[in-house]
């Protein structure tokens, strides 16, 4: 399936920014991220520290590769696989009944418990990564196309941030109304 390059570039830019945002809080608060990884209870204790060090750099590599047309498809597939791995970790812990741990998705200041909505969010992000992996139609890429890519990615990222903030604050709002 070939898509217009505006669509593939917009999706790649959105996923790249989301990965860049995720790696920043992991690099700024390595101890917090190591604890988040340990809280999931999926890795042996001896692997938590090396994986906590490796994951942010893997996300950085994927984010940079998404911005380059030559490496975009491979990076997008890698992003989709990593997001699927994160979704599996969330799903396993939901299945275990461990909803009280922080998903670690938005950094230490925006803790949010594991909920099924996070699986839907990851499915949407995987869809964006898969769309970014599709080969683009061969056509000239004009300056206006670049404007559309930036505007659509910015709009998508604002919607993503709003939905993420709403998911993070829903438990607090439910407590306020007594549910």
Sum this structure up briefly.
The protein is an all-alpha fold and 179 residues long. It has 6 helices and no strands.
Write up what this structure looks like.
- This protein has six helices and no strands.
- It is mainly alpha-helical.
- The longest helix is centred in the C-terminal third of the chain and has 34 residues.
- The model has no long low-confidence stretch (mean pLDDT 91).
Q: Topology as H/E string?
A: HHHHHH
Number of helices: 6
Profile the largest sheet. none
What is the typical, i.e. mean, pLDDT?
Answer: 91
What's the SSE blueprint?
Elements: H1 5-28, H2 30-39, H3 45-66, H4 72-95, H5 116-133, H6 143-176
What key phrases describe this protein's structure?
179 residues; mainly alpha; 0% strand; globular
């Amino acid at each position: 399936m070939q898509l217009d390059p505006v669509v593939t570039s917009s999706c790649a830019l959105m996923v790249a920014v989301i990965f860049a945002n995720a790696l920043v809080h992991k690099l700024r608060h390595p101890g917090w991220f190591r604890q988040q990884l340990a809280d999931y209870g999926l890795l042996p204790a001896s692997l938590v520290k090396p994986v906590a060090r490796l994951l942010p750099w893997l996300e950085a590599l994927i984010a940079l590769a998404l911005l380059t047309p030559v490496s975009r498809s491979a990076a997008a597939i890698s992003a989709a696989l990593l997001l699927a791995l994160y979704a599996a970790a969330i799903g396993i812990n939901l299945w275990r009944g461990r909803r009280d741990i922080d998903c670690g998705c938005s950094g230490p200041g925006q803790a949010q418990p594991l909920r099924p909505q996070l699986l839907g969010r990851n499915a949407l992000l995987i869809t964006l990564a898969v769309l970014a992996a599709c080969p683009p139609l061969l056509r000239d890429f004009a300056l206006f196309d670049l404007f559309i890519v930036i505007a659509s990615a910015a709009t998508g990222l604002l919607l993503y941030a709003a939905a993420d903030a709403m998911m993070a604050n829903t438990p607090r709002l439910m407590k306020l109304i007594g549910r």
